UniProtKB/TrEMBL annotation:
Gene3D superfamilies: GSPII I/J protein-like, gspk-gspi-gspj complex like domains. Residues 209-241 are annotated as: Disordered. The keyword Membrane applies. Residues 216-241 have a biased composition (Low complexity). This is Type II secretion system protein J. Belongs to the GSP J family. Keywords: Cell inner membrane, Cell membrane, Membrane, Methylation, Transmembrane, Transmembrane helix. GO terms for cellular component: plasma membrane; type II protein secretion system complex. It is found in: Cell inner membrane. One of its GO terms (biological process) is protein secretion by the type II secretion system. It is a single-pass membrane protein.
Amino acid sequence: MRRSCSAPRNGGFTLVEVLVTMAIFAIIGVAASSIVNSMMRTSEQSESAIKDLQQLQYSMLTLERDIRSMVPRKNATGRFFFADDERFAFVRNSWLNPGAMLPRSELEPVAYLLNDGNLVRENFYYVDVSASEDAKSRIIFEDVESMELMFYRRPPADEARNNAGAGAAGSDEWLEEWDFANELPLAIELTLVTERWGRIQRVFTINGGDFTEQVPEPIEQNPDENNPQPDTPDNPNGGEG
């Protein structure tokens, strides 16, 4: 019997096997990279959408809080409520000032206006402001293209009777302009055309109700005990003991 003199074969991979393996790993890497990039883009889009939604909710909440707290108090325009094409202004109450710690009342003059494509809220510390006082401003809604207002009004009883007698309509109505200096609308329809959300339309009701501005009572001063008081029927001796 002859023994084989051939050398044993070394274990390993051929060049073709290595190339095939590299190609498979490259395909897996490209697929994984594509999935990771897609997940990252989805996460960024979700964060952006959540941020925009939070801004929308904050803006609507701020508008509702201010408009529903509107009171019949004249602002710097001399009207209860002022509105034009890109601005409206009024006075609201419930501006918290616990224990009157701050040198102001609980009334706050507020204005909303469009400025460079943004809905801006302006306010002052005092209701009766001077023309030189600057407002405190902050943007509450970005990328606003236009703003429209409608006003819901109920004519007073005497006006309704006069209109009815003259054959005119005396029922509640929606108005495109507000020309009543000493009245507040019952509701306001606000329409915003935005770049992100398109057309947004909200109706805000106004609480109305009676409003009486709180006027501080004068402080009574105690009489000076060192000064004699004049004679009175109850004190015939005046300030003498």
